[in-house]
Every structure is written in C-alpha cells, then in structure tokens.
Amino acid sequence: MVKKRITKKDRERMERILEILNREYGTHMRTYLNHENAWQLLIATILSAQCTDARVNMVTKDLFQKYKSIEDFANADLAELEQDIHSTGFYRNKAKNIIACAKRLLLEYHGEVPKEIEELTTLAGVGRKTANVIRGNIYNEPSIVVDTHVKRISKRLGFTKEEDPVKIEFDLMNLLPKEHWILYNIQIIAHGRSICTARNPKCSACFLKDDCLYYKGFEKKKK
Ligand code: SF4
Q1: DSSP letters along the chain, please?
Q2: Which one of 110, 137, 164 terminates a domain?
Q3: CATH of the domain at 22
Q4: Are residues 45 and 23 in the same domain?
Q5: Does residue 124 belong to any structural domain of this protein?
Q6: Chain segment 66-115, per-residue pLDDT in tens
Q7: Residue 129 annotated as catalytic
Q8: Do both 158 and 94 map to the same domain?
C-alpha cells in the first residue's frame, strides 16, 4: 500500500491529540473483553463481531465455564454451541468458525494461538481486526485494531479519509508513532463510548474539538 505524505502540520496536530488522549484516558493497557488466556481472547473476539463487548462478556462468563479448553471447543456439538452463543448474533457462522478455528489450532499449532498476522488470518473467523487484538494484547506487538469507534473517530479527527478498515489501519500505522498503536484503540474506544458517539457526538464538551476536522467543518458551516 502506498504511504501517504504527512505534513508537519498534520503531525503536530496528531501529537497534540495523542497528548490529550493520554491525559484524559491514561496510558494503562487493558482489554475490554474478559479472558484468562490467548485462546479465550481469540474466541471472545470472534464473538464480538457485530456485538457489544458487554454482551460478549456476559456470554463468555458461562461459555468458558462450560468449554474449559480449546479441545472442548474443537469437539463441541455445532447445534449446542450455536445455542450457547445465540445472543451475540450471527451465531451460526460464529459457531462454525469457532469449531474450525479450534480444530486447526490443535492440528497445526499444538493448541497455541500463533503470533504472526499471516498465520492468524488463515484461521476461520479471524480477520485483521481479530489478529491485531491478539498481537497487541497477548504478544504486545504494536498493532492497530480498527473497530467501529476507531473507524468513525479517526475519520472525524481527519486521520484518514478511507472507508475500508484495512486502508484505515495502514493510514494510522503511517501516521501514529508505533508506541501508541495499541493504546490508540483503547483510548478511542473510551472516547467513542463517552463523548464521540456515533449519533450526536458531544462536540461542545469535547477536549479534542480544537484539533478535530469534523468539528471545524461543522463550525464553518454555521458561519
Ligand atoms: S469534536 Fe466532536 S467529532 Fe471531534 S472528536 Fe470531539 S466529539 Fe468527536
């Protein structure tokens, strides 16, 4: 993918935004999906497609009690697993993918979750987003997770003009310093849940408004 040119002004604006995000949301690394190990996070992330983290956490609380190992998932009865994860939506595909993914982990990776993005994305139900969740949270490898909040807010801030999550990921990798890649997702999710909501973002109360292109455009139109 061709690297876009970043101007000095863009870089300074990005640096100010990251500084404010650090100040407001802290620099503590955390995951919003409850898990105790790599394969649990992998399954929770597969379940989180088109579903809230809160709902996934409710489901995995019982799910990981019932299926205590990756072998349990590999040997699961499809119809029963579909019922177990029903409330996360798209449960037929998710159940099929979880079983296929667990089988491959056992067959090809001795039950371990691989680290490389090229390997992770060959697992059933695992795209770049899920792969980056694993790389960042389990292996501490710099990676940018483009979820719905990151997509929406990165566009509003003017960090990308793209729609496609992979192109957004590359734009962000090009712009943001590597040491902020994992943190960016954590902070932007917090911002998206509290202030920069999908509908009616609370721009007047937002500490990023002086550097936000969406807000500046909105203000211009008012004049
Ligand atoms: S100013 Fe508005 S659009 Fe920009 S980041 Fe803040 S809440 Fe979101």
Answers
A1: -PPPP--HHHHHHHHHHHHHHHHHH-S----SS--SSHHHHHHHHHHTTTS-HHHHHHHHHHHHHH--SHHHHHT--HHHHHHHTGGGS-HHHHHHHHHHHHHHHHHHHTTPPP-SHHHHTTSTT--HHHHHHHHHHTS--------HHHHHHHHHHTS----SHHHHHHHHHHHS-GGGHHHHHHHHHHHHHHTS-SSS--GGG-TTGGG-HHHHHHHHHH-
A2: 137
A3: 1.10.1670.10
A4: no
A5: yes
A6: 999 999 999 999 999 999 999 999 999 999 999 999 999 999 999 999 99
A7: yes
A8: no
- Regarding the beta carbon of 203 and ligand 1, being less than 6 Å apart is answered yes
Look up the CATH number of the domain holding residue 67: 1.10.340.30
Q: From ligand 1's centre to the CA of 210, what distance in Å?
A: 9
Whether 147 is a known active-site residue: answer yes
User: Domain range for residue 69?
Assistant: 38-137
The model's pTM = 0.91
Closest atom of ligand 1 to 214 CA is 3
Residue 2 maps to a domain: no
What is the CA(65)–ligand 1 centre distance, in A? Answer: 40
CB of 156 shorter than 6 A to ligand 1: yes
